[in-house]
Amino acid sequence: MTEFWLISAPGEKTCQQTWDKIMTATTRTNNLSTNNKFNIPDLKVGTLDVLVGLSDELAKLDAFVESVVKKVAQYMADVLEDSRDKVQENLLANGVDLVTYVTRFQWDMAKYPIKQSLKNISEIVSKHVSQIDNDLKARASAYNNLKGNLQNLERKNAGSLLTRSLADIVKKENFVLDSEYLITMLVVVPKTNYADWQHTYETLSEMVVPRSTNLLFEDQDSGLFTVTLFRKAIDDFRLKARENKFTVRDFQYNEEEMKADKEEMTRLSTDKKKQFGPLVRWLKVNFSEAFIAWIHIKALRVFVESVLRYGLPVNFQAMLLQPNKKNMKKLREVLNDLYKHLDSSAAAIIDVSLLLDVGYV
After folding, report:
1. 3-127+294-357 and 172-252: same fold?
2. Strands 222-230 and 355-357
3. Does the chain have fewer CB atoms within 10 Å around its N or its C terminus?
4. pLDDT tens across 171-221, in order?
């Protein structure tokens, strides 16, 4: 887990002096944090009313974009299933790992032209990320339905003999078919009761065909046996079998149905494989897009809050601090001491809402 503090401090005579002051206080003498300049271009300031309104709107947009970033990351982990160890290598921003992107942040002039107003830039981000969110919902719904249907079929083929599909176990030659009087039934017998079954199945009811039982399949606990009897004895045989801890499976041999089940399994499995690659590529691209948008919203927030607190002309230094985990409390105290001479409205921005945590990946 990597945590950053995105802070803004009022400029001295130059922003470089502000930077040097922070570096001396937090890094050069006491190793409280690793620091990077956070470069924000000369954005259009606009009116005070617009800035005040944007302050609230950007806080909400920040939370929304973060939620979309996390949803895309989490869904990537869900889709990769058994390859979750590869999640990290798929969650990049602009082709680099997240820590590198954040610590070397450069404003994307092509996506977010700085000649636009702050309001317009925030609307561009909101519209773009909302589209990613909607697309994710649609793609996830389609893929989850496909995956769920496939899992249901797989469960049918992998459960106990009492419940699982028998399509891949039984064959046509195991049954007496098209007889007006005789029927072949399937019985699940616990392994511990095999001897009892062999000794008693012919006498469980009248009209059981002698020596008609065969073991077709075994799992860890039970075996699947056939037995042939007269149709009129079905109910009596089922009752007596249950009393002896043998379970008659409700099953009718239907070649077309079993073939359809196998074809459905093949189709779903093929469809899942076809959709997997494009879905992972979409998630990679749109995680990057959403994450980049999120950091630009952070930059917008720092800019707006700094202008509101420090006034005009624009003169502040934005910095990204990676705290030494053991010294977080001390770091905050040092930063507060540096700027305690300022009134509360102009103190250095160290707002919890601007903490950047990329630890969810």
Report:
1. no
2. unpaired
3. N
4. 999 999 989 999 999 999 999 999 999 999 999 999 999 999 999 999 999
- pLDDT tens figures, 14-41: 889 999 999 999 988 788 999 999 999 9
| Pairing assessment for the beta strands 182-190 and 222-230 based on DSSP bridges | antiparallel
pTM of the entire predicted model? 0.79
Is residue 59 within 8 Å of residue 353, measured between CB atoms?
A: yes
CB–CB of 185/226 below 8 Å?
A: yes
Question: Which residue shows structure tokens 């797989």?
Answer: 154
**Residue 313: cis peptide before it, omega within 30 degrees of 0:** yes
Q: SS3 of 127, please?
A: helix
The two tokens of residue 105 are 């942040």
d(CA 321, CA 36): 7
Nearest to 64 by CA among 4, 112, 133, 16: 133
Q: Where are the beta strands (DSSP E) in 53-211?
A: 182-190
Domain range list for the chain: 3-127+294-357, 172-252
Helical axes 48-80 vs 118-156, angle rounded to 10°? 20
Contacts of 225 by beta carbon, 8 Å cutoff, 6+ apart: 186, 187, 188, 189, 197, 201, 213, 214, 215, 216
Residue 344 has pLDDT above 70, yes or no: no
Q: Do residues 118 and 303 touch, judged by C-beta distance below 8 A?
A: yes
Contact (CB, 8 A) for 112 and 105: no
Structure letter (DSSP) for residue 228: E
**What kind of fold does domain 172-252 have according to CATH?**
Alpha-Beta Plaits (3.30.70)
Three-state helix/strand/coil letters over 328-345 = HHHHHHHHHHHCCCCCHH
The CATH number of domain 3-127+294-357, selected from 2.40.240, 1.10.10, 1.20.1460, 1.20.1530? 1.20.1460
* CA gap 100, 93 in Å, rounded: 9
Number of helices and strands in the chain (H, E): 9, 8
Position 240 confidence tier, pLDDT thresholds 50, 70, 90: very high
Lookup: tokens for 88: 């990290």
Look at the block and give the residue holding tokens 């005009």: 312
Q: Which residues contact 321 (CB under 8 A, 6 or more apart)?
A: 4, 5, 6, 7, 26, 33, 34, 35, 331
The secondary structure element, H or E, covering residue 259 is helix 255-310
